[in-house]
Amino acid sequence: MKKIKVFLTKGSGEGVTKDTAYCRALNKAGLINLNLIHLTSVLPHNSQIVRKKPKFSYQDYGKRVYVIISEIRASLAGQTICAGLGWLEEKPGTGYGLVVQIQGLNEQKVKKEIRDSLREIAKYGTRNNKKKINIMTEKIVCKNKPVCALVALVFNKIEDWSV
Q1: CA 124 to chain centre
Q2: Angle (CA) 157 119 12, round 5°
Q3: What pTM does this model have?
Q4: β pairing state of 4-14 and 147-159
Q5: Are 104 and 110 in contact (CB under 8 A)?
Q6: Model confidence over 80-125: pLDDT tens digits?
């Protein structure tokens, strides 16, 4: 069965508004000019996570792409924000897995909440690989302009609007 490529990417940015900070973070993550369809928490069987930015061309502008995304925005000077994604595979080699998206004001607390959440959620599965928790975070400090941090799992399937 064919592997489903899922790109793991992240970005942060600042802007004159929280929305422009979000756009800068999307740009750094390689997701600008796309319509993001948010998924919740499950990686399908045969998923293969690739730790790099996805590559899209100008011809993909406005197309739909599926993501599991964690993002946080702030505008309070001195505030540190952190977005995090965590996942575990059901059984090594299957690709099937569970994902959580956590955001907060402290990277260590975000990582702890990811681990705690996945350990608890794994209790409901039958074969979850509880020992292999994967985590990626992105943080940024708000100086004098609004900021955004995000981490995303991006599915390698782009759809246009003719479908």
Answers
A1: 23
A2: 50
A3: 0.91
A4: antiparallel
A5: yes
A6: 999 999 999 877 777 888 999 999 999 999 999 999 999 888 877 6
**Half-sphere CA count of 74, side-chain side, radius 13 A:** 21
Contact 138, 101 (CB under 8 A): no
Question: Would you list the domain boundaries of the chain?
Answer: 4-159
Rounded-to-5 percentages of helix, strand, coil across the chain: 20, 45, 35
| Model confidence pLDDT, tens digit, residues 45-80 | 889 999 999 888 888 888 999 999 999 999 999 999
Question: Which of helix, strand or coil describes residue 12?
Answer: strand
The domain defined by 4-159 folds into: Pyruvoyl-Dependent Histidine Decarboxylase; Chain B (3.50.20)
Residue among 147, 129, 127, 131 at smallest CA distance from 139: 147
Q: Among residues 59, 52, 72, 2, which one has the least CA distance to residue 33?
A: 59
d(Cα 72, Cα 44) in Å, to the nearest integer?
26
Q: Where are the alpha helices (DSSP H) in 7-149?
A: 18-29, 107-122
